[in-house]
Design a protein that fits this description.
Largest sheet: none
Radius of gyration: 20 Å
Shape: globular
Number of strands: 0
Order of helices and strands: HHHHHHH
Structural class: mainly alpha
C-alpha cells in the first residue's frame, strides 16, 4: 500500500495522516484547477501546490522526522535578503513583487528541506516517492480525459470543473497550455513505469495508463 509508512511516534499519527491526505488533494488540484484568469493565470494551481507543500512539511514535523542539516538553507536566506535589498535600492518598485518573489524562494527552501528529510529517512522513503508518483500519474490521466472531452467539444458536461477550449486552441486539460499537458503526460508515462517496476501496477494496468496518456500526448 502506498500509505504504508513507518510507524509514527505515539500520539502523532492522527495529526500527520490527515495532513498527508490534505496535501495529496491539494497537490492534485495544483494540476487540475480549471481557473486561469489574468493577470496571474496560474495563481490557483500555484496556490494549491504551495498549500500541498505546507501540509507535507507540517506532517513531516508532526512525525518528528529528523534529517541532516543542510548548508543550502543559508543560500535561500541570502537570496530572500537579495530580493529585499533590490526593493530597498529601488530596482524592485512594488513591495508586492518583492513579497511574491520571497514566497517563491521560501517555497523552494521548504521543498529542499522536505526532500532532505525524505532522503535521510531510514524507512518509508520508497512509499512516499511512490505516493508522489501515483498522484502525478492520476493527475496526468485525469487531465488527459478532460483533454479528450475538450477535443470532442464536450467539456461543458463537466461544468465548472473543466476549462473551456477556445475555438482555435488545442486541448490542454485544465493546465491552460497544450505544452504543459504534454509534459505532464510524459511524466505520467515515466512514473507509471516506475510504479510497474515496484509492482504497484500490473501489466494490463500499465498498458491502459500508457495508452490513455499516449493518446493525450498526440492531441
Amino acid at each position: 500500500m502506498l500509505l504504508n509508512l513507518e510507524a509514527p511516534r505515539k500520539g502523532r499519527f492522527s495529526f500527520a495522516l490527515p495532513l498527508y491526505a490534505l496535501g495529496s488533494i491539494a497537490f492534485l488540484m495544483a494540476w487540475l484547477a480549471p481557473n486561469h484568469y489574468p493577470p496571474w493565470t496560474s495563481f490557483h494551481g500555484e496556490a494549491a501546490a504551495f498549500a500541498a507543500l505546507i501540509a507535507f512539511c507540517i506532517a513531516a514535523i508532526a512525525r518528528n522526522e529528523q534529517g541532516r542539516p543542510e548548508n543550502a538553507y543559508a543560500l535561500f536566506l541570502v537570496m530572500v535578503g537579495l530580493v529585499w535589498a533590490q526593493w530597498a535600492a529601488g530596482q524592485i518598485i512594488y513591495v508586492g513583487d518583492a513579497t511574491i518573489s520571497s514566497l517563491y524562494l521560501v517555497g523552494l527552501g521548504l521543498a529542499w528541506w522536505l526532500g532532505s528529510r525524505l532522503n535521510s529517512l531510514d524507512g518509508g522513503t520508497d512509499n512516499r516517492l511512490m505516493l508522489l508518483a501515483a498522484l502525478l500519474v492520476a493527475a496526468a490521466v485525469i487531465s488527459t480525459l478532460i483533454a479528450i472531452l475538450q477535443w470532442l467539444r464536450l467539456e461543458a458536461t463537466l461544468g465548472i470543473f473543466a476549462a473551456e477550449r477556445g475555438p482555435s486552441m488545442r486541448p490542454f486539460g485544465n493546465l491552460g497550455q497544450p505544452n504543459h499537458l504534454a509534459t505532464l503526460t510524459l511524466v505520467g508515462i515515466v512514473l507509471s513505469c516506475g510504479l510497474f517496476a515496484r509492482r504497484y501496477l500490473n501489466a494490463w494496468q500499465l498498458g491502459a495508463v500508457i495508452a490513455v496518456l499516449s493518446f493525450g500526448l498526440i492531441l
